[in-house]
Amino acid sequence: MNVVLRTEGLGQRYGDFQALDGVSLALPRGARHAVIGPNGAGKTTLINALTGTVRPSAGEVYVESERVTALRPEQRVRRGLVRTFQINNLFPDLTVLESVLLAVCQHTGAALDAWRALDARRAEIESARRILRLLKMEAAEHERTRDLAYGEQRLLEIALALACKPRILLLDEPAAGVPRRESVALFEAIAGLPGDLTVLFIEHDMDLVFRFAQRITVLVAGAVLTEGTPQEIATDARVKQVYLGRAA
What we know:
This protein is an alpha/beta fold.
């Protein structure tokens, strides 16, 4: 198994509160892996520790064979570890294409010069359009971000993450606040991402989790309760007791 993201005994303590407690994960290339659990289980803290937003109190994070535990978030992005957030942070007055183009240029170091003709950015524009086609957003490329439906805004946030050319994409509740019909379309777009891209996502909608995840990790009180296939998780008595019963 070609493991591209691994943690060993990851812990995060805030005073007397243990937010993460010995979390060990191993995600192979191309995984579609969900993390679920009740509120306060440590899911977002795990994403923060993986991406360097917080420095874990214990344990290690590896991207392939490289230890990245001490690296800053932007250094991890350069290693291919990229995230989205629960609340999007987009530029409302930019068009969809302009937003993705800005992200592409930022990643490649090709600064956007307001005085330079866009024709000089043909390679970057094509790269941005390729990302939009991947997410089936090409028809919206000239729409202003503020005019998009909320589900489309979440897709645009994923497009900005893809502009960083991730090997590992971390999605923190991508369907939060998205109407049901839009959330299904959102996850269908996620399911259509390249097969060699590893995706780890947090999601509270169990229908989406069981439909799109290949494997699921259940966190409770900051620790891994169990991990398995959707079928194994759905039939696990402990998971039903501490989470699925309430989630349903």
